[in-house]
Amino acid sequence: MPFNPALIERVVSGVWRFAEPLCEAEGMELVHVEFLRAPGGRTLRIYLDRPGGVSLDDCARVSRQIGDYLDVGMEEVGPYNLEVSSPGPERPLSKAGDYERFKGFRAKISTFEILDGRKNFTGILDGVSGEDILLRLNDNTIGIPLNAIRRARLVDEEN
Hints:
Elements: H1 5-25, E1 29-38, E2 41-49, H2 56-73, E3 81-85, H3 96-101, E4 106-115, E5 118-129, E6 132-137, E7 140-145, E8 149-154
Helix pairs in contact: 1-2
């Protein structure tokens, strides 16, 4: 099957549905799922977290279970590389709750369409209002619709 938006959405939503309860049962949080074309072929990247961090054993255990699920339940995906890791300091933001949880943190957000004259924003997360993510840019706070966000992540202020 060709690598297209419908396939990406089907794989990402299928992995979320399967992996989120799996991670919760293991005492972990499913942070983010992405399926993309990379130089080495297709890559399914999954980020996990838990208080105190995730171990290599945690990643390996979840990787095996998700790999088995994809092999059986989504064989039309074709060949892919599976990467399971912790999110690190530039943690992806996926769910509305992430934007509330990391209120006060610096974030970089890119949108699908031009908003307010641009597609890339870097500022301080100011929470959520309805369907909008609030981002403080200097002294001005803007609302970015959650469904307009293509990619969002925390900014590592150490680097």
